[in-house]
Amino acid sequence: MLRDFQEKFKIYENIIYESKYWSWSLRPHQATLGAGILSLKRECHSFSKLNEDEFKDLNKIIKVIEPALKKSFNYDVINYLMLMMFDKHVHYHILPRYENPVDFLEVTWKDDNWPGVPKLIGKPLAQERLDEITSFIRNNI
Predict the structure, then answer these.
(1) In which domain, by residue range, is 33 found?
(2) Domain tally, the chain
């Protein structure tokens, strides 16, 4: 199941940052600019099954993610969604939210559902474009 999850979200093709227990990668479908996946590196089907070290590491990686996304795109608020309805692996969808459109890579990115519940569906981007966004965020860590 872990391998299927990693392939579906192209975890290692779009990796932004890794800690000991967690991977942060760019979502192939950018629902909002900078949308990512924060996933546990080992197979785990229940949040309650995380150990103390994984929880501590989660705290540390969040302190990398938020400043990097703020510096990169100056989001207004950030949403963390742990749904696990289809992908039964411990992970969060990280969605930076924007009150106003953001211009980046010659595209105007709009958060159409602001300030409501975010949309998870976005346009799939070409790998080249994902690489540009990933690189930009990495340079702001």
Answers:
(1) 2-138
(2) 1
Would you call 126 exposed, middle or buried from its count of C-beta atoms within 10 A (0-12, 13-18, 19+)? exposed
In the three-class reduction of DSSP (H, G, I as helix; E, B as strand; rest coil), residue 42 is classed as coil
Please compute, for residue 58, the number of CA atoms within 13 A of its CA located in the half-sphere on the CB side.
16
Residue corresponding to tokens 């629902």: 31
DSSP assignment letter at 136: H
List the CATH number of the domain containing 25.
Answer: 3.30.428.10
- Nearest Cα neighbor of 34 from 86, 83, 82, 71 is 71
> Which residue, 66, 61, 81, is CA-closest to 34?
66
For residue range 71-120, list pLDDT tens digits in order. 999 999 999 999 887 888 999 999 999 999 999 999 999 999 999 999 88
C-alpha span between 107 and 104 (Å, rounded): 5
- 3-state SS of the chain: helix, strand, coil percent to 5? 30, 25, 45
Bridge partners (DSSP) listed for residue 92: 38
**Cβ–Cβ under 8 Å, residues 50 and 85:** no
Place of tokens 């890579």: 105
